[in-house]
């Protein structure tokens, strides 16, 4: 049984080299169940690179990544959603010709078991799974306040709505850990405030642990239980937002001088 002090995610000495360039250098931190953790740093610090390691798009040169105590470094990338890790991306990638409902249902794929033959023959088990996927998608559409867009095709939807659809799709797989990659990008002040409430509700209502990469400092500092700071691929701070905000190394990384 997990408890509040047993990490859900443990990043242990992760190093990643691209030729002679060290993108990540011995990065370690934990995220425990029920936390909202922020991962911040200046442009080029290695944040998205680390996310790509967590979702198995990149293979670390050294170190390990544990999820629920088990290394994920040998898990095929297509299995990552099935073990309980969901993700959104900086650039929203919806299926533009599908409706909002259909887009969210796609996120349920990792939770279905029907194979090619069962789908081709439309066996009863497939119909049951599709009905359940539809019901779950409708629940999440309501949860994300997307009801007015349920049957709208994704193409042409306003950007903030597209981002919300992508978040609903990620939730459809029922992840234990949700990786949010710059969810506030291109949102205005009011939309960022709405997003903050949505992230809290994902944790409080859906019971999902959240790790977010974000440049929007006020969002990170207000919504996060802990903040990890990286700069030039190295971790320079890890702790409560109020402590991280006052850390001289963090101030120097962002302002260029220790204030």
In short:
The protein has 259 residues and is of the alpha/beta class. 37% of the residues lie in helices and 23% in strands.
Description of the molecule:
The protein is an alpha/beta fold and 259 residues long. 37% of the residues lie in helices and 23% in strands. The protein has 10 helices and 10 strands. The protein has helices spanning 47-54, 80-83, 100-106, 116-121, 124-143, 159-172, 189-204, 217-223, 241-245, 248-255; strands at residues 9-18, 21-31, 36-40, 62-67, 70-71, 85-87, 177-181, 209-213, 226-231, 234-239. The strands form 2 sheets. A 6-stranded mixed β-sheet has the order 6-7-8-3-9-10, with helices on both faces. A hairpin with a 2-residue loop joins β1 (9-18) and β2 (21-31). α3 (100-106) packs across α5 (124-143).
Task: Considering the chains and any ligands shown, give keywords for the structure.
four-stranded antiparallel beta sheet, 259 residues, six-stranded mixed beta sheet, 10 helices, alpha/beta, 23% strand
